[in-house]
Write a structure and sequence with these properties.
Length: 405
């Protein structure tokens, strides 16, 4: 059976995740100008997005194992699509209570995003005969490309349509998840692991190797999202660059380099050892955070932000691959725990940098310097995983694979 259409549907699903996570912040200014909303209310939408995704990750692992992936992944796409439509329809359905509609739309499309985050990885990991690290890395590159496309296209549409027609933009983006939901009703999916063969949750949580893998995923989320969220503000406030330069040179270049790194590993992954690539990425990210924080040269700061995207590129798909290859019989519950750890890091990392920056005389410089702890922690986690992967894989019925190198 050919799974080519399944892989392409997963690539599109990761693009949908980029829409879900990145379209709302670009609409902050139009929403605030049209409805008198505050910065706190806008920030609350982002917080609810991450909380909803984390909650869905934690709640849906066992039900997916019981009833199968297809109904949940189709439902996730539909939630994402109709959530974007609800977000767009808020002024028409909720009258003077527009914010309530924005909240409801955010919860709906975030729940869809949580299901996609949970399920796209096991769909790819379950396909027989594929090089999992390579295909996962290439799939995750579609999030980076999607991030760039969403930022540029949404910004262009806001400029062309004006603030009053902002609601057209979520309607346009809703087309992608709805069409991909139709795709997932038809593409072949690998058979699920039978209940009596599945690795138990209690067993997973008793394994130090798995707990270190979750810690690595948490740190990876912190590395990736902290730079992605703070790069623009840092380059504007600390490096003295205009906002448009910070957005393009910071956010877009970070996402571009992350996509490039994932695409390169997706194309040439068989020639690289995954653990060595992750160790090198950890060192590069630590150097980039330190350079951005300590250098007074704007060019160095821009390069540091961009190269951090390259350094972090292989970490998220790498952590997923390590967990999937070490515990091949764990089912969706394992992916729920790994994804939840990544979401937790994505929330904690940016918050911690902002907390430190608010209390430091040099603001974001000290915040980013403290964030060097994330890639340093990642380095030691990956070293542990590299050292013990072979033995752990043999214990749980997986080939040693990359862990022996």
């Amino acid at each position: 059976m050919s799974y080519r259409r399944t892989i392409l549907a997963c690539y599109t699903g990761n693009f949908v995740q980029a829409v879900i996570l990145n379209v709302t912040p670009i609409l902050f200014v139009p929403l605030m100008s049209q409805y008198g909303l505050t910065f706190e209310q806008m920030g609350r939408l982002v917080l609810i997005n991450f909380i909803t995704q984390f909650t869905v990750d934690m709640l849906c692992g066992r039900p997916v194992d019981r009833w199968g992936i297809r109904p949940f992944i189709v439902g996730g796409h539909l939630c994402a699509g109709f959530g974007l439509l609800m977000f767009a329809a808020s002024p028409f359905l909720f009258g003077s209570h527009v914010y309530a509609g924005l909240l409801l739309g955010t919860v709906l499309f975030s729940a869809g995003g949580g299901l996609l985050e949970l399920l796209l990885n096991p769909v790819i990991s379950g396909i027989p005969g594929e090089e999992k690290a390579r295909v996962l890395s290439f799939m995750h590159s579609f999030y980076a490309w999607g991030h760039i496309v969403v930022v540029l296209v949404t910004t262009l549409l806001v400029f062309l349509l004006g603030a009053k027609l902002w609601f057209v933009i979520p309607v346009v983006w809703s087309i992608f998840p709805i069409l991909n939901a139709v795709n997932f009703t038809r593409v072949p999916l690998a058979p699920a692991v039978e209940e009596h063969r599945r690795t138990r949750l209690k067993t997973l949580l008793s394994r130090r190797f798995f707990l270190v893998c979750m810690a690595a995923m948490l740190l990876n989320g912190a590395i990736e999202v902290t730079m992605g969220q703070w790069a623009s503000s840092f380059l504007e406030t600390a490096a003295g660059l205009p906002k448009v330069v910070g957005d393009v040179a910071g956010v877009c270049m970070f996402a571009c380099m992350m996509g490039v790194g994932r695409a390169i590993y997706g194309k040439l992954g068989a020639k690289f050892n995954l653990y060595r690539a992750m160790l090198a990425g950890s060192v590069l990210c630590a150097a980039c955070y330190a350079a951005a924080a300590l250098s007074g040269n704007p060019v160095v700061s821009v390069l540091a932000c961009a190269l951090c995207g390259l350094g972090v590129s292989v970490m998220w798909p790498g952590c997923v691959t390590i967990a999937a290859e070490t515990y091949p019989l764990a089912g969706a519950t394992m992916f729920a725990l790994v994804s939840g750890a990544g979401d937790a890091g994505s929330s904690i990392g940016p918050w911690m940098v902002g907390f430190v920056a608010d209390r430091a005389s040099n603001g974001l410089r000290l915040g980013l310097l403290i964030a060097v702890l994330f890639p340093l922690g990642m380095f030691f986690c990956v070293r542990y995983l590299k050292r013990h992967a072979g033995v752990e894989s043999e214990m749980h019925g997986a080939p040693a694979g990359q862990g022996e190198a």
